[in-house]
Structure formats: C-alpha cells, structure tokens
C-alpha cells in the first residue's frame, strides 16, 4: 500500500512539474525586443506632447561705436582778391586794379621796367605772380631751339616756368604760390627771382634777339624778275627830343613794329620797350596789354614830327622829334 502511495505521489509531482513548465516558460524569440534599431535611436515623440520652449534671453543692447575725437581745423589764412592791394603795400608796392581780381605793378630794375600781375586762382588755392615779358609780332613764332631751351628752363627752375598766351601772343615767366598764410618777405623774394631769371635769359623770350637761320637758295630754272625792295617808311629810325625841363627822349621806331624809348633826366635813365602802331596821325606805344601811350603824330616837311599826348592839357606843345 505504501509503495502504491509513493508511486502515485511521484507521478503527481512529475505531472505538476510538466504542467507548470508548459504554461510559464516563454519561447526563445520572446526573449528579444521586436522594435527596430531606428525606433530605438529615434523614438517617435509621444502624442499630444508639448515641445519644450526655448530658454528666454534678455535682449542685448547694441553698443554704439566709439567716435574719434573731433579735431578742430585751423582757420583759413587764404588771401582774398580784394586784399591784394594792401598785401602789396606791405612790400612797398603800389598797384593798379585791372579788373577781374587782377592787380598790376611795374617795378624798375636797372634799365628795365618790369610789369607784374598778381591774381588768385578761382578756387583761391593759389596766388599767381606773373611777369609779362614780350609780345610776338604777327607771323613770328617761337623757334624750336628756343622752345626746347624754355622747356629745359622750366625743368631746371620749376615751379618757376615760362608760359605763352595764344590769345595775346605774349610770353610770361610765372610762379604759383600756395594761398595759405602768405609771407610778404617770401613773395617779394619770388618777385626778385623772377626779374633776375628773366633778365639773365633774355635771349629765350626777346624775339628781337632771335636769329633766323638762313635758308639755302635754290637755283631757279626760269629767270625771276628782281624783287623790288619797299622803301623804308619815313618814320623808321632813331629820333631825339628835348623837353622843356631839359630832359631828353630818344625813340627808336623799327620797321618790324617794335620800339625802344630812353628818357634821360639828370643822372637817371629809364628804358621802355614794346610794340607801336602808326595809323594816319595816331601813334600808339604799347608796353604791356594795359600800359600804353596814345598820341597825335604830326609830320612836318623838314623831316621832323611832333608827339602830343591825346589826353594832354589844352595848350600843351608836346615833343618835337628830329632824326638822330
């Protein structure tokens, strides 16, 4: 009986163990997750989830750039055109207003009368000092050799330079100064240097000293009639006159339209050069564009002629010139 009970108990335990094993032991595949790697590393957000708000930052106030300290410009010391006469007075020069801001003064150096013009450039940046030298006669041009030497002069003495006006046919020597705090002593030095250079280089600008190269004569196949030389006008030559104050005048009128005038008063001698025109009984001596003498020219049968200024006082006799 006991053996039957033991055998029954053993059978019941084994059955119970098998039943528990069949109902509770999972399959091998159930030991691993069925989720993909993509779902693991990139899980879907939970539904109805509110995204986190970015952290609030306080607004940053922009910092204005630092401005460099303002530098005060020194007051301008540019000379105004209306101040030119007083400025020249500081150097002891009287001036004449030619209009358009141009002022003229004539200075004497030895036997030379030197006409200067002073003007300020339109932008007031430069103060021009100009010495008027010579007016070319119609048909006269500057030879290439002289032009080359003028350019070499400009290179050597610049900013002092020669200049030529096609409108007036006049040659100048000039210097431009910076119009800022002009010093009268420095300007006077420039005036003196211009005079010295002009006198020492007269052969460059004085066309009466230019020598025209002789052109080779070409033998003509056909005989040419001899050229009739025009007689020399009666007024051409050197003339002298004595004034009531015993001062003497010597005037040379050249055939090319140029003149040279000497005035001797005691131990003092003045010399003027320029161009002249004689039309009918009117004689004009032109030293510069604005400096001229206009007179009546009266010819007498004895070969003398009278020079009477057109603005002379009533009753004036003028000067009687005779051939020297």
Explain what the structure shows.
Helix content is 21%, strand content 31%. The chain has 324 residues and is of the alpha+beta class. The strands form 2 sheets. Strands 7-8-9-10-11-12-13-14 form an 8-stranded antiparallel beta barrel. It has a 6-stranded antiparallel beta sheet with strand order 1-2-3-4-6-5. The longest helix is centred in the N-terminal third of the chain and has 23 residues, at 2-24. Residues 12-23, 35-42 and 213-219 have low confidence and may be disordered. Residues 1-27 form the signal peptide. Residues 38-79 are annotated as: Disordered. Keywords: Signal.
List its salient traits.
324 residues, alpha+beta, Yope Regulator, Chain: A, Lipocalin, eight-stranded antiparallel beta barrel, six-stranded antiparallel β-sheet, 14 strands, signal
Provide a compact summary of the structure:
By secondary structure, this protein is an alpha+beta fold.
The Rg value, from CA coordinates, equals 54 Å
Biggest sheet strand order reads 7-8-9-10-11-12-13-14
- Report the structural category: alpha+beta
Count of distinct strands: 14
Signal peptide: 1-27
Biased composition (Pro residues): 43-72
Region (Disordered): 38-79
Keywords: Signal
List the SSEs and their pairings:
Elements: H1 2-24, H2 37-41, H3 84-89, E1 96-99, E2 102-109, E3 112-120, E4 126-135, H4 144-157, E5 161-165, E6 170-178, H5 184-200, H6 202-205, E7 237-242, E8 248-253, E9 258-265, E10 268-279, E11 282-286, E12 292-299, E13 305-309, E14 319-323
Antiparallel strand pairs: 1-2, 2-3, 3-4, 4-6, 5-6, 7-8, 7-14, 8-9, 9-10, 10-11, 11-12, 12-13, 13-14
């Amino acid at each position: 009986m006991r053996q039957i009970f033991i055998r029954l108990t053993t059978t019941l335990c084994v059955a119970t163990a098998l039943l528990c094993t069949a109902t509770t032991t999972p399959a091998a595949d159930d030991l691993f997750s069925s989720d993909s790697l993509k779902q693991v590393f990139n899980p879907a957000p939970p539904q109805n989830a509110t995204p986190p708000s970015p952290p609030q930052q306080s607004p940053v106030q922009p910092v204005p750039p630092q401005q460099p300290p303002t530098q005060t410009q020194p007051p301008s010391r540019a000379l105004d055109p209306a101040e030119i006469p007083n400025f020249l007075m500081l150097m002891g020069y009287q001036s004449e207003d030619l209009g358009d801001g141009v002022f003229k003064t004539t200075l004497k150096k030895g036997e030379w009368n030197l006409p200067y013009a002073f003007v300020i450039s339109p932008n007031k940046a430069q103060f021009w000092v100009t010495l008027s030298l010579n007016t070319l006669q119609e048909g006269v041009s500057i030879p290439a050799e002289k032009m080359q030497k003028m350019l070499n002069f400009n290179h050597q003495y610049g900013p002092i330079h020669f200049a030529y006006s096609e409108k007036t046919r006049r040659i100048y020597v000039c210097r431009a100064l910076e119009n800022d705090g002009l010093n009268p002593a420095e300007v006077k030095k420039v005036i003196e240097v211009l005079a010295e250079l002009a006198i020492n280089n007269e052969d460059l600008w004085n066309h009466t000293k230019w020598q025209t190269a002789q052109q080779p004569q070409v033998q003509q196949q056909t005989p040419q009639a001899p050229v009739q030389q025009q007689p020399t006008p009666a007024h051409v030559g050197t003339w002298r006159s004595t004034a009531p104050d015993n001062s003497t005048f010597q005037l040379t009128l050249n055939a090319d339209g140029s003149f040279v005038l000497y005035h001797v008063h005691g131990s003092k001698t003045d010399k003027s050069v320029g161009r002249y025109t004689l039309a009918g009984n009117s004689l004009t001596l032109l030293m510069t564009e604005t400096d001229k003498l206009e007179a009546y020219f009266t010819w007498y049968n004895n070969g003398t002629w009278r020079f009477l200024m057109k603005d002379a006082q009533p009753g004036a006799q003028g000067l009687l010139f005779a051939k020297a």
